[in-house]
Amino acid sequence: MRLATFRELEPLCWRAPSAHNTQPWRLDHRPEAILVGWDRAYELPAADPSGRDLRLSLGAFVETCLIVAADAGLRMTFVGDHCRADRRVGWLRAAPHRYDTPFSAAQVLTRRTHRGRFSAGPDAEALAAVDAVARIAGGTVRAVPDATLLARLLRDADRWTYADAAVVGELRSWLRLTPAHPDYHTDGLTDRCLGLSGREATALRAALAAYPVLRRLGLPRLLAAASGSPLALGGAALVLVGPPGMDDASQVEFGRVLARTWLTLHAAGLAAHPLSQLIDAPATRAALGSLLGVAPQRLLHVARVGRPVGPAPPSARRVDGLGQRPR
Ligand SMILES: Cc1cc2nc3c(=O)[nH]c(=O)nc-3n(C[C@H](O)[C@H](O)[C@H](O)COP(=O)(O)O)c2cc1C
């Protein structure tokens, strides 16, 4: 494999999804292989204390690298070598064959998280397709059967999120609610991607600035209520379930599965809107697990999935299509 050629493809690999759009990955080019690791500055210790979303994001990045390389004709493989202490997930290495994938670089480029309205949920065929993707790795994708209970769980999960000052502070540090924000075009969650009007973005900025003072006066409940229910925007909630006894390395592998399921949906004209708070909050995670008859620790990811009514805005990246290097 020509490692220098892969460097040119890196801006496209950066289109991989990540929680809060932190883009935590780091590539270290060595003579014999490329080390895939992560930067501590992009961990989410408050929102993601177990590192589950970090590992899913890194796995999604690995899968994206392999798809982009295969599309360019590069023969590359991934060798997992997870080490939390060294902040490393594994190595991208030369391989005898191109990575076998049905996905293209064009799909990597056009896939987006979609937080807007869906005209329909996934049909049985789409659900079977993503389930098949997960089953190859020993997991499964399940639809949440009880919409009323799900709505209640989501409200509880939102309240839990906004009640935690550390989680709110961390979220605030990744929000880019005005184009004047210095990192608006590099990372984080923009007002446009969150689907906020100018007035809503301004109100959210003001509420978050006042959070330390108003927290005890019920602001968390108000924030949770003001965010509305995305479930009212259509679609169906799908849950990615891993096998029993997953360790850190297998969560990275399921990040690869997650990327494949999102690209499978994208190929079918569908999109995903993650609702990670349902799994982050211990009580709603337990309730969701018992609803699905699955041990809560096997729940990896939840997303509202459906057919978008319109296009979603592109999210920012630290490395842009012109090949700029990360900070
Ligand atoms: C593991 C993981 C968890 C995520 N959780 C959420 C979430 O709870 N809510 C949300 O709106 N987006 C969530 N996202 C979507 C990211 O915010 C999104 O991938 C990022 O902003 C980049 O945008 P893009 O997917 O359109 O490229 C998650 C993404 C990943 C990979």
Walk me through the structure.
The chain is α+β, with helices and mostly antiparallel strands. It has a domain at 3-110: NADH Oxidase, CATH 3.40.109. The protein is built from eleven helices and ten strands. The chain has helices at residues 3-13, 52-71, 105-110, 124-136, 147-163, 165-174, 198-214, 219-226, 248-267, 277-280, 282-292; strands at 25-29, 34-38, 76-83, 88-94, 140-143, 175-176, 189-190, 236-241, 271-274, 299-306. The strands form three sheets. A four-stranded antiparallel sheet has the order 1-2-4-3, covered by helices on one side. The chain has a four-stranded antiparallel sheet with strand order 5-8-10-9, sandwiched between helices. A hairpin with a 4-residue loop joins β3 (76-83) and β4 (88-94). α5 (147-163) packs across α8 and α5 (147-163) runs antiparallel to α11. Mean pLDDT is 94; it is low at 322-327. Flavin mononucleotide (FMN) binds at residues 17-21, 53, 56-57, 60, 112-113, 115, 189, 274-277, 315. Flavin mononucleotide is lined by residues 17-21, 53, 56-57, 60, 112-113, 115, 189, 274-277, 315.
Please summarize what this structure is.
This protein has 327 residues and is of the alpha+beta class. The protein has helices at residues 3-13, 52-71, 105-110, 124-136, 147-163, 165-174, 198-214, 219-226, 248-267, 277-280, 282-292, and strands at 25-29, 34-38, 76-83, 88-94, 140-143, 175-176, 189-190, 236-241, 271-274, 299-306. Helix 2 crosses helix 9 (248-267) and helix 5 (147-163) packs antiparallel against helix 11 (282-292).
